[in-house]
Every structure is written in structure tokens, then in C-alpha cells.
Amino acid sequence: MIYVRSLRFRMMLLFSVVVGSLLAVSYLGFYALLAREVRAQVDRQLLETAGPVVADLNADPNDEDVEQFNLADEYFEILDPSGRVVQLSRNMKKHSLALGVQPLDPSRIAFRTLEDADRDRLRLVLVPLVPRPGSGVRILAFALPTRDADLVLARFRHLGLVLLPFSLLVTGLVSSWYVGRSLRPIAELTRRAADTTERIGNPGAQALWPPLTVSNPPDEVGLLAETFNRLFVRVDSALRQLRQFVSDASHELRTPLSILQGETELLLAEPRSAGQYQKALGVIDEELKKLSRIVEGLFTLSLADAGQLQLARDPVYLNEVLEEACALISPRARAKNIDIERSLGQEVACLGDETFLRQLFLTFLDNSVKYSPPHTRVRVDLRTVDSRVQINFEDQGAGISKEHLPRIFERFYRVSSPEAGEAQSGGLGLAIAQAITRSMGGSIDCESTPGRGSTFTVNLPLE
């Protein structure tokens, strides 16, 4: 019952019914044309054979040679207009053609088909003759058996009865193969969709599917298969990123939560002095701030992923926002004897969100100071190129190797740096920076050389 209801079976059945109906109609049409042509050929043969006899009888109306005719399968009669037999050919043995006693039309040639029990099926032509003196108009009836024509038609019917079922069988097999081949990508899509459902609920499944085989890319099924190939790749990538993100987020949240729990247990274990309480509360406050930054960052990224990150479009001077960001990061830079060189003399106005822009610039300045060794410099340049503005953040830190560059904007992705002695880009800063930049229609480029430093370039449109 399931197979009967399948799309493949229904398409094959429809295709076979349509083709079978066309074949049957074509066969009947060919048979009708063949029967008509065979009958016309017999009629032409009747006229050609009767022609000399009619000419002879018209030349000598009193001639009674018809009674002497004794040709195999050729039957002659002379009739009067009432249908009465006047003469018979000898081979009819006094047995007329059984036309019946009925008036005949002496003004035109007529054809008839006779079913004779004593003879084969006959085809008859009635030809008016020249009137005989004293007896009026006479009509020559000439008949031939139609066994040869009937044999041809019978063979055609038998051939059709054999070829029609054979054609239907071949049509069914071809349609089954073609429909199955055409629908194979859809069956594969169904299997892949089921696998996707299983993988969503099975965290241990990590294997990426091979792409679907597209037999005919230009057609609708081929385009559907190619579209689902891209969809499956994106779903697989999204699943892996989601699992990695949850794992990294859990790892990032576990550390401050563990510290908070430990400090709280120590405070509750026994009475403490005021200084100890103040020190523990300072640790708790620092960890709470870290948790707040992580949660706020995750919230910002979730809004960006959903396309709902709303940025204000107010007139902003980028050089002023950059100057303010550099002033905010200067105390940390001075603590490591890092100079912040600024080239912000040009005033650049654009439409943007001052709060998010400050956060964007602070992210790169904070990373530059954090991962640069003491007694180095961080350079910030602002310039316009065509209809865009470029802000460069150049440091002299440990740098990032090429294999890590494509992934530094992923959330919680860590870059191990032996020179720096710690993991770089382990949070959400660069991911948030990229989300903010993309929301403003811009982009971020990074060039880095291990041991010499990195340069981050923010490209924003000018309006």
C-alpha cells in the first residue's frame, strides 16, 4: 500500500497510462487509415478489371459473353434497374450475388460489400451499361473476394495486439527507471533530513555528509539538490558552531562561578575580619563584572545573529570617539610603559552609534595593550579612502600565525602564543567587534606577523 501511494509509482502509472492511451489511439488511427487504403485499393482493382468488360458490353449491347466468363474469384452479373438478375458468369453456378430484389440507381457507379455464406467476403461494384434496344438500362455487377485485404488487416490487428502490450511494458520499465533516477535526489534529501533530525538530538554525531549527487543540475530537481547541498553544509556548520559555542561559553562561565562559590564558602566557613571581608568582596565584585561582560556580550551577539542589533544613526565625529577611547585605555598603557601614538588630526564625520563605536575601538585598543610586551608602542591611524574610512590599530605584540587568522573572530576562540605566554582572543571582544562593524555595513581586516605584531583595519562607510 505504501508503494502504491508513492510518488514514483503514481508518476510511473500516469506516464504509462498517458503513453498507452496515445499508443492505442495511434494504433486505431493507423488501422483506420490502413483499412481505408486497402478498401480503396480493392475498389480500384474492381474498376480496372471491370473496365474492359464494360467497354465490350457497351460496344455490343446484345452480346451475352458474360455467361461464358469462368475466371477464378471473379464474379459477373447483369442486372436490370429493379435488381433482377439477367445474366450470370459460369463460375457462379446459377447462384447469384444475393443483392436482393431492390431498385438500383442506374445513374452512377456504386460499391457494396457482401457477406456470402457460400463464398468469401466479397467487394462488389455496380457499373451502369449502355441501354439495350428494347430492354432499357442494364447494370454490370462485378465482385471480387476480399480475403487478401482481410488477411492484411487481420495481420495488422494481431501485430497491434502483440505490440501494444509490449510497448506498454517497455514504457513502464523506461518510466520506472527514469522516474526513479529523477526522484533519487528527493529520496536522498528525505534521508538527509531524517539524519539531520537525528544529529540535532545526538551531540555525539559530528560527521559531515558527502554532498548529494546531482544527475542533471539545470533541471528543477537538480537545482533543489544543489540548494539542499548548501543548506546541509550550513546546517552542519551551524550545529558544530552552536555546540562549540555552548561548550566554550560553559567553560568561560565556569571559572568565575567557581571563584564566586569558593569565596562565598570561605566567608561562610568562619568569622572574618573587616579587611578579609573587604578583600573577598573585591574578588566577588571583579568576578561579577566579568560575568556581566560575558552575558552582555552574548546578548549583543544573539541580537546580531537575529538581525535585531539596533544601532543609532546619529552624526558622529570618528576622530573624537577615537581620542576618547585612547584616553580611556591610557592608564593601562602607562602601567606597561606602552606609548599610544595617534594620527587623528583629520575630522571625519559619519552617521553611527557613538556607544557601539567606542566599544568597537576599545576592543582593539584593549587587545593591543593586553598582548603587547612592555616598552612598545600602539599606533592608531584614521584616514579616508574614497567613500570609506579606515581606522588602523597597529601593535608590536606577539602576532598571530596564519593558521589562526581565519578563526580569530569566532566566539571564545583561543590562540596559544608561546611569545606572550598565554592564550589570546579567548573571549567575545573580536566577535562583538565584527558584529558591530557588519551592522554598520563595514568590515575588519587583519594582518599579522608572529614576533612582530598585528594590524587590525576597520573599514566603515562614509555617508
Overview of this structure, please?
It is a single chain. The protein is an alpha+beta fold. It folds into three domains: 6-152, Beta-Lactamase (2-Layer Sandwich), CATH 3.30.450; 220-305, Helix Hairpins, CATH 1.10.287; 314-461, Histidine kinase-like ATPase, C-terminal domain (Heat Shock Protein 90). It has eight helices and 14 strands. It has helices at residues 2-5, 7-59, 147-200, 220-269, 274-305, 318-335, 354-370, 429-439, and strands at 75-79, 85-88, 110-114, 122-128, 139-145, 314-317, 339-343, 349-352, 377-385, 388-394, 415-417, 422-424, 443-449, 453-461. The strands form four sheets. A five-stranded antiparallel beta sheet has the order 2-1-5-4-3, covered by helices on one side. Strands 7-9-10-14-13 form a five-stranded mixed beta sheet, covered by helices on one side. Strands 6-8 form a two-stranded antiparallel ribbon. A hairpin with a 3-residue loop joins strand 13 and strand 14. Helix 2 packs antiparallel against helix 3 (147-200) and helix 6 (318-335) packs parallel to helix 7. The two termini are 65 Å apart. The relative contact order is 0.06.
Task: Record keyword descriptors for this entry.
52% helix; 5-stranded antiparallel sheet; Helix Hairpins; 14 strands; 463 residues; alpha+beta; 3 domains; Heat Shock Protein 90; Beta-Lactamase
Topology:
Elements: H1 2-5, H2 7-59, E1 75-79, E2 85-88, E3 110-114, E4 122-128, E5 139-145, H3 147-200, H4 220-269, H5 274-305, E6 314-317, H6 318-335, E7 339-343, E8 349-352, H7 354-370, E9 377-385, E10 388-394, E11 415-417, E12 422-424, H8 429-439, E13 443-449, E14 453-461
Parallel strand pairs: 7-9
Antiparallel strand pairs: 1-2, 1-5, 3-4, 4-5, 6-8, 9-10, 10-14, 11-12, 13-14
Helix pairs in contact: 2-3, 3-4, 4-5, 5-8, 6-7, 7-8
